[in-house]
Amino acid sequence: MASAAISGTGAPRRRKSGDERRQEIVREATKVIAERGFYGASLQEIADGIGITQAGMLRHVKNKNELLLLVLGQFESDNPTQACLNSMVEDYRETGRAQCFPAIYRTSVRQALDNPRLTQLYLVLRAEAMDSAHPAHDYFAKRGLKVRESVAKITWNVPEPYRDSKAIVDLYLTMGSALDGLQMRWLGEDDFDLEWHWKVCEDFFYPLPEWEGYR
């Protein structure tokens, strides 16, 4: 049970548990890393953001690399797009039902609009992690491979030319790259309508009448 401390007003103040403090650290680290990148973020700035000393923070996380792993773990937990894909994989395994391919990136667009910081975190770290020495390099390489394998295993409700696993993975990669570019513009430019521009992309990638009944 968390103990109580005395606040400046004399009222008892509940001391945060280790798990609560760790979650607070991860939230603040997510904010700072999204803004400055892993290399630009400092442990001192993160500690200052939640009102504790750096030494106090290091009682909950060993070092900056471990903190990054915690941030990435929270990113996976908070990621609606990954949850959508996982749900599709599970539904396909249980029912054999062909899945709606356009739903993946529509979920990504909604995710970006609902949580821009999570999107910024992904884009900033993904760019930094092109460096093989970056502590998240292997994470992103393995994550991309895992997602592509999941996409290839599902039967999708798509036009005949895309029913081959290579064709659908190629489409997935191409559309993902397009969305990454749009999200970068959206985060960096005023009055950029991400939702509208994604609809333009869908008309290009899912042209009618070929995609009639599949969109």
UniProtKB/TrEMBL annotation:
Residue ranges of the HTH tetR-type domain?
19-79
Q: Give positions of region: Disordered.
A: 1-22
Q: Which domain of life is it from?
A: Bacteria
Q: Which residue ranges hold the DNA-binding region?
A: 42-61
Q: Which UniProt keywords are listed?
A: DNA-binding, Transcription, Transcription regulation
Molecular functions (GO terms): DNA-binding transcription factor activity; transcription cis-regulatory region binding
User: What Pfam families would the database entry show?
Assistant: TetR_N (PF00440)
Task: Name the InterPro entries for this protein.
Answer: Homeodomain-like_sf, HTH-type_TetR-like_transc_reg, HTH_TetR
Name listed for the protein in its UniProt record:
TetR/AcrR family transcriptional regulator
